[in-house]
Amino acid sequence: MSALIYGAYGYTGQLIARAAVERGLQPVLAGRNADRLAELGAALDLPTRTVSLSDPERLRTALDGVSVALHCAGPFVRTAPPMIAACLETGTHYLDLTGEVDVFRRLADRGADAEAAGCMVLPGIGFDVVPSDCLSRFVAAHTPDADILEVALYAEGTVSQGTLKTLIEQMGRGGVVRREGRLHDVPPGWTSRNVDFGDRCRGVTSIPEGSVVTSGVSTDVPNVTAYIAVPLLVQSLLRASRHVQGILTWPPLKRLLKRLVEQGRPGPSAEERQQGRTVVWASARGSEGGVTTARLHGPEAYTFTARSAVEALQRVLEGTAPAGYQTPATAFGADFALAVDGTSRQIVEEPSRA
To answer: Which of 105, 128, 163, 270 is the most exposed place for a label (fewest CB within 10 A)?
Structure first.
């Protein structure tokens, strides 16, 4: 059994490929740029396969002999459909790094197809979905009759070109919440609150984060809101952006911003990744008033992603790959996030056992 990493020469893809080699894995590296692929393959002494997502036949051929494909080339709203189609046609397990709500929704609709193909479809196997989904399942499981779930993210560090391009792709999209078991679109920066992240309280504003979708699979909680810690100025800008959403979706503007992003550096340096950290907070409230609140402290976001993605590859290669659409917590359990080196969980509040 072997793994394939598509988009391996991108910023995050390289971190994952190197971490995989450190774990003793020998993945096949794939992507559309033959020169960059050959350079990385030579550096890591790994096999390569050059293929474009726009060539379905060659993409299926590239998956020959591959049991699991880890898709690292975003924006996933554009790149996931051809890769997932190839994986379903070849019975290859599918993992990706998306955080895009629309991708989770679309892939969830392919759950029956995945079951019929005998393969697993598991999007969001990095930060922020691994910690948010796993912690959501944990607090929900510890709260009798949980009917409200809130999740909040805090991350120290800078972002990569790929992440910025994905954010640009989502400009003007608005937010998403779960209410009475159904997903609802809401304006940007729809609601805000304060959250205690352990060192201090921070203002957070609602975002269309992946756990709003995955919680519908990994928990039975009908009402879910996700937040991110940002300065007050950013919160105000998010709320103001609802008045110019039409402009933000204008394709020429997005293309211009992406070109500007490409002039910057690929992503955080090794020193910056070493200094960064992440905290995920989750709180579930039951219909009778019981509350479970917990925090998950972890390494910097890209470091977390590389470690969680390789851990997932290892588990799939060892045979843990339930067929159908899965979330990190349904595939590997609520404690999966704790398998990421440098991660710890702290229960802040829990229902009385009296």
So the answer is: 270
- What are 76-130's pLDDT values in tens digits? 989 999 999 999 999 999 999 998 899 999 999 999 999 999 999 999 999 989 9
Do residues 76 and 151 both lie within one domain? no
Number of domains composing the chain:
2
318: domain CATH number is 3.40.50.720
pLDDT for residue 27 is more than 80 = yes
Pairing of strands 182-186, 68-71: unpaired
Residue 255 lies in a domain: yes
> How confident is residue 155, by pLDDT bands cut at 50, 70 and 90?
confident
pLDDT digit string (tens) for 263-316?
666 778 889 889 999 999 999 999 888 999 999 999 999 999 999 999 999 999
pTM, full prediction: 0.90
Q: What is the CATH number of the domain that holds 249?
A: 3.30.360.10
